[in-house]
Design goal:
The structure is a single chain. This protein is an all-alpha fold and about 250 residues long. The chain has one domain. Helix content is about 70%, strand content about 0%. The protein contains 9 helices and no strands. Helix 2 runs antiparallel to helix 8. It is globular. It starts with a helix and ends with a helix. The N terminus is likely disordered.
Length: about 250
């Protein structure tokens, strides 16, 4: 298996993906081994930052390796079974990975001190992440997803999945992307808060990076459409449950 990864056409992309999955498993193990404890110690806090940095590399290698992807399309194929996503979709995905990199740094006291020393970066990313950096990336829409990109047998399932994903996207954008960072900005975090936030970041990594991997398996017909999308939606529970627990204590 290792030989096939290193010698295939997409060797770099596969190698980065394998490393990402290994990191994801390591973080999951650490979180399960030490639930709700303080994860600001030097042995852990850099792991989420590294995970999302590798996730960003995965997006970049996908853009370089998958030349067959269309530059952009009116309807993306993420929630469909007839086509794939565009390069615009993958590029937009990289923007949200960047937000996760920032949050991974900011949630840890060590990383937060470093960001505060940069002065301009902190207010920019806390108060204006969707008004500044967002303009450098293309925008796609779940609402324009899968109208004619899915077969008749799967269209209702994909439509429902699209609504679920849209809800979590809006919730994550305003609550996770803004409110939780505000709490960190005001130093309202506790060890429990940080422990739960790391679960949220892990869920974000699952949906942003592993979600694209699941889509690739769906497109290549390694996984069935419903199984692939079902596995993708499962990722929302990784971040959704700790989000509710944080809400109950704010």
């Amino acid at each position: 298996m290792a030989y096939s990864i290193l010698t295939s056409r997409y060797a770099l992309h596969k190698a980065v993906g394998a490393y990402y999955l290994a990191l994801f498993g390591r973080i999951l193990y650490l979180l399960l081994s030490n639930p709700l404890e303080s994860y600001s110690e030097s042995y852990f806090w850099h792991y989420p930052c590294l995970l999302h940095a590798v996730g960003l590399m995965q997006s970049l290698t996908a853009l370089i390796s998958f030349n067959f992807l269309p530059r952009a399309q009116k309807q993306e194929g993420f929630f469909g079974d007839k086509t794939t996503v565009s390069k615009a979709f993958v590029t937009e995905n990289a923007y949200f990975v960047l937000l996760c990199i920032f949050a991974s740094l900011y949630v840890a006291p060590q990383g937060r001190n470093m960001i505060k020393s940069l002065r301009v970066i902190e207010p920019l990313m806390i108060f204006f992440p969707f008004q500044t950096l967002r303009k450098c990336f293309p925008k796609t829409s779940f609402e324009r997803n899968n109208t004619d990109k899915s077969s008749k047998n799967n269209s209702k399932f994909f439509q429902l999945s699209k609504y679920i994903a849209s809800y979590f996207y809006l919730f994550g954008k305003h609550y996770v992307g803004n409110m939780l960072n505000y709490c960190l900005f005001l130093n309202l975090d506790t060890p429990r808060f940080r422990g739960l936030f790391y679960w949220i970041l892990l869920g974000g990594g699952y949906n942003l990076t592993i979600g694209i991997f699941l889509h690739t398996l769906k497109f290549r017909k390694v996984l069935g459409p419903k199984l692939a999308i079902g596995a993708y939606l499962l990722g929302y529970s990784i971040s959704g449950i700790p989000t509710l627990l944080i809400m109950s204590n704010i």
